[in-house]
Amino acid sequence: MDRASKLTEIRNRQDRWRRERQAELDREHVVAELQHQHRGEAAPHSPSPQGRGASGATATAAAQSPSRAAPGGS
């Protein structure tokens, strides 16, 4: 395998890992949000995550993840 194809394979592997990690963070965020709603802590005007499709939730969380992932932790 030449250098370019090795780099492409590595990049693809990293991209796949990032997508899987983002999906995991999205799931954790949705679970936390649903727990807050269940306890009555959610703001009445906040949109419900189950109303969106998976891709919409992922895209929204992906845009927000750098600032949201660090403080909350797991």
Automatic annotation (TrEMBL):
Protein name, per record: Uncharacterized protein
Biased composition (Low complexity): 50-74
Basic and acidic residues compositional bias, start-end: 28-42
Region (Disordered): 28-74
Superkingdom assignment: Eukaryota
Lineage: Eukaryota, Viridiplantae, Chlorophyta, core chlorophytes, Chlorophyceae
